[in-house]
TrEMBL record, chain A:
Residues 36-147 form the Gcp-like domain. InterPro entries: ATPase_NBD (IPR043129), Gcp-like_dom (IPR000905), T6A_TsaB (IPR022496). Coiled coil: none annotated. This is tRNA (Adenosine(37)-N6)-threonylcarbamoyltransferase complex dimerization subunit type 1 TsaB. Pfam families: TsaD. Gene3D superfamilies: 3.30.420.40. It comes from the Bacteria.
TrEMBL record, chain B:
Fe cation binds at residues 114, 118, 311. InterPro entries: ATPase_NBD, Gcp-like_dom, KAE1/TsaD, TsaD. Substrate binds at residues 137-141, 171, 184, 188, 283. It comes from the Bacteria. It comes from Micromonospora solifontis. It catalyses: L-threonylcarbamoyladenylate + adenosine(37) in tRNA = N(6)-L-threonylcarbamoyladenosine(37) in tRNA + AMP + H(+). Residues 27-317 form the Gcp-like domain. It is found in: Cytoplasm. This is tRNA N6-adenosine threonylcarbamoyltransferase. Its EC number is 2.3.1.234. Required for the formation of a threonylcarbamoyl group on adenosine at position 37 (t(6)A37) in tRNAs that read codons beginning with adenine. Is involved in the transfer of the threonylcarbamoyl moiety of threonylcarbamoyl-AMP (TC-AMP) to the N6 group of A37, together with TsaE and TsaB. TsaD likely plays a direct catalytic role in this reaction. GO terms for molecular function: tRNA N(6)-L-threonylcarbamoyladenine synthase activity. Belongs to the KAE1 / TsaD family.
Length: 225, 348
């Protein structure tokens, strides 16, 4: 079955088509552009392009997998609304996967890892994975210092992700080069059981982790001296 | 009729998630979800709250619109979406949604100007727009006067607010008077029992010296401050504030300026059609005053019914329909959401 994967939770805008079968998940086509300011412009043409790459029409898709974040809100919503609207038109199920899992799951082989992506405001979105690739902490948003402390408690020996690169010094852990951003095939692998089982479509609720910046209106400020 | 194009419109520039469907100039569906209640305690629209609400609302709102129009996405000929101006994060949800629908259903997409859509929506009620026309667009987010030579291609800004939008002034004065958000409908209601001549509030940018550089521009910040001063002076003197009179006098000042400048634009250009749109166009006094004064100058006022004046998807569909009929090419799939989209651009 052809499955579309989208993720816009990090500066990387990713669209991919994978083949999900009983034997496994095979990447067929992928477009990934790193540009934190152009998620809205880039994603739809990339979806179009990966479909063309595999010579498929949208109606050939059997499911859509979307990275739920966490990630900076504005960009994150682009991927989720794209997946949700396409799923609605095509009448196919959508499945959500924590975007950090798409970084942590593929690298956690044998030793626990800390995944950190850039949350701006000098914070990281982070999660910790055990040696089998299972998430054992997070996702959370904290300063790199707090994430490092939690990682130490969990005997983490290595960090990965663009946030890990950015705050390598504070984290004090060796940093794995790849993947810097959520891996589309990994996201599909994490949803593969649900896809194969034809599980019901899931609402794609973003992992915002932060509340909107808003202060309740205070009383009127006098204009008279 | 049946061979006219079937157009879907998506609007998310502020706090309303709108999906409208039109065939030619015929309105088939106008589904709306609003996050206005979530903003009330903040006294104004909070962009991130609006964006989150759009993401949750877009799919169900689309479902309702399709049901209402009794069509499927496959029947649609083109999808139009507000690409600006508006709140950046809010616009982006609608633009991404429109692209998702366009890609999945293999339909063309038109990224259109929100203000031009406020003009176009009137065609659903009053038929094709005579061109050229003058348009007055007033809401919580915009206050503009424009000349429309060709709604599909050429719109010329004549003036706009240099500080607060007209609707913003309504919100702020409402808060001052202890009325809920959004203030427009509450001021309108209170004003009915008040005397519009009770208090002489200032008319911004109408003095002879202002008319040189700002003939068609608006300013409501001074008016808002004048109302605040007047109300505070009463309160400090321990006197009751005559809410109805303040509301009526404030509303009269706003409408007087809006209508005066709009008709000045009509007169000076010899144009006899005035379209009024935007949320403030739902104000009963503005509608009545415009009708009354325009008649004296032989100007015909076109104002859509209140539900079509406020932001909605039908207006975007109406503009999309107009563009398709005029043979305008669709936008590219990489069209951006542009929070500061200039008025001169009808379609990106
Ligand atoms: Zn508007």
């Amino acid at each position: 079955m052809l499955v579309l994967v989208v993720d816009s939770s990090t500066p990387a805008v990713t669209a991919a088509v994978v083949e999900v079968s009983a034997d496994g998940v095979v990447a067929r086509a992928q477009r990934c552009t790193v540009d934190a300011r152009a998620h809205g412009e880039l994603l739809a043409p990339q979806v179009d392009a990966v479909l063309a790459d595999v010579d498929a029409r949208p109606a050939d898709l059997g499911a859509i997998v979307a990275g739920l974040g966490p990630g900076p809100f504005t960009g994150l919503r682009v991927g989720l609304v794209t997946a949700a609207t396409m799923g609605q038109v095509l009448g196919i199920p959508t499945y959500g996967v924590c975007s950090l899992d798409g970084i942590g799951h593929p690298v956690a082989v044998g030793e626990p890892v800390l995944v950190a992506s850039d949350a701006r405001r000098r914070e990281v979105y982070w999660a910790v994975y055990d040696g089998a690739g299972q998430r054992i902490a997070g996702p959370n948003v904290d300063t790199p210092g707090v994430a490092a402390e939690r990682a130490r408690d969990l005997a983490v020996t290595v960090a990965v992700g663009d946030g890990a690169h950015r705050y390598a010094e504070v984290l004090g852990l060796p940093v794995r080069e790849e993947p810097r951003y959520p891996d589309a095939t990994a996201l599909a692998v994490l949803a593969a059981e649900r896809i194969r089982a034809g599980a019901p479509a899931e609402p794609l609720n973003p992992l915002y982790l932060r509340r909107p910046d808003a202060v309740a209106a205070t009383g009127h400020k006098p204009v008279l001296p | 009729m049946a061979d006219e194009p079937l157009i879907l419109g998506i609007e998310t520039s502020c706090d309303e998630t709108g999906v409208g469907i039109v065939r030619g100039h015929t309105l088939l569906a106008d589904a709306l979800a609003s996050s206005v209640e979530e903003h009330a305690r903040f006294g104004g629209v909070v962009p991130e709250v609006a964006s989150r609400a759009h993401l949750e609302a877009i799919v169900p709102t689309m479902d309702r619109a399709l049901k209402e129009a009794a069509v499927t996405i496959a029947d649609i000929d083109a999808i139009a979406v507000t690409s600006g101006p508006g709140l950046a994060g809010a616009l982006l949800v609608g633009v991404a949604a429109a692209k998702g629908y366009a890609v999945a259903a293999e339909k063309p997409v038109y990224g259109v100007n929100h203000l031009a859509a406020h003009v176009a929506v009137d065609t659903l009620e009053h038929g094709p727009l005579p061109e050229p026309a003058i348009a007055l667009l007033v809401s919580g987010g915009h206050s503009s006067l424009l000349r429309v030579d060709d709604l599909a291609r050429e719109v010329t800004p004549l003036g706009s607010t240099i500080d607060d939008a007209a609707g913003e002034a309504f919100d702020k004065v409402a808060r001052l008077l202890g009325l809920p958000f959004p203030g427009g409908p509450y001021i309108d209601r209170e004003a009915r029992a008040g005397d519009p001549a009770a208090i002489a509030f200032p008319r911004g940018l109408t003095a002879a010296k202002d008319l040189v550089g700002h003939r068609y521009d608006f300013s409501f910040s001074g008016l808002k401050t004048a109302v605040a001063r007047w109300v505070e002076a009463r309160q400090r003197a321990g006197e009751a504030v005559p809410v109805a009179d303040v509301a009526a006098s404030f509303q009269e000042a706003v409408c007087d300026v809006l209508v005066g400048k709009a008709l000045d634009a009509c007169r000076s250009s010899g144009i006899d059609t005035l379209v009024i749109g935007g949320g403030v166009a739902a104000n009963s006094r503005l509608r009545a005053m415009a009708e009354h004064r325009a008649a004296k100058h032989g100007v015909r006022v076109r104002t859509p019914r209140p539900k079509l004046c406020t932001d909605n998807g039908a207006m975007v569909a109406a503009l999309g329909s107009h563009l398709v009929a005029a043979g305008v090419a669709p936008s590219r799939l990489d069209l951006p959401a542009d929070s500061a989209m200039p008025l001169t651009v009808v379609r990106v």
